[in-house]
Amino acid sequence: MNSIAPSVGVFSKEDIHQQLQRIIADRIFADSEILQKFLFFIAQETQEGRSNQLKEYTIGLNVLQKPINFDPRLDAIVRIHACRLRRALHNYYQLPGADDPIHIAMPKGGYILVFSDNRLKRGNENADHRDKEIMSEFESIDAIKNLLRADMQYCDDRIMITVRMLNIETNDEIWSQVIEYKVSNSHGWDIQEDISRKLMAIVGEYCKFIEENVARSSRMAVA
Predict the structure, then answer these.
(1) Contact 104/89 with Cβ under 8 angstroms?
(2) What is the pTM of this model?
(3) Coil, helix or strand at residue 47
(4) With contact defined as beta carbons under 8 Å apart, do 39 and 86 qualify?
(5) What are the sequence ranges of the domains in the chain?
(6) pLDDT single digits (tens) 41-68
(7) Nearest alpha carbon to residue 195 among 166, 164, 162
(8) Over the Cα atoms of the chain, what is R_g?
(9) How is residue 51 annotated by DSSP?
(10) Contact at 8 Å (CB) between 161 and 150?
């Protein structure tokens, strides 16, 4: 299994404990004692800095009560329940936990939990959705073979949105603009509305650019 660095430093143990309680209270986990035990065990080991000890053998003994001679090479039971846990966490955050403050996932390749800001994750998904909407709008325009693309990145306490105009055929960048924000706990995701307004303003400028070029092309064709 590959080693994946856990990200627990930004959340307190109490915050994570409360999030775990929310998860196991949902019916996805409430009916499975194994999933609950599996989740709490690897969460505790990750928080206590013992993530390097999260191996199939350790989980088999501590979660599944396997005997000391348990051999994960011959018995895939830990991997089976790990797949169930990944799927359960994914399903939980699709609807019941969509608005929870902390997102918990267990990436493939290991048994280490990754804790992230669920608001940031939703923000990235919203940005991807806006990106697809923008591209679908402009790809339908044949007169000008350009599209507008918006990518959002999060680094430390800053959000950077890069808006670029690209030529569809050559993928050459025609122009770009960066919108940057410093995020703090005081205003958090209140900046989403401002980001949307600025993106719409940029889209408006792009539409004007298209109209002017279409009009110019029409005049030249008539001449």
Answers:
(1) yes
(2) 0.53
(3) helix
(4) no
(5) 13-112, 120-222
(6) 999 998 888 888 899 999 999 999 999 9
(7) 162
(8) 24
(9) G
(10) yes
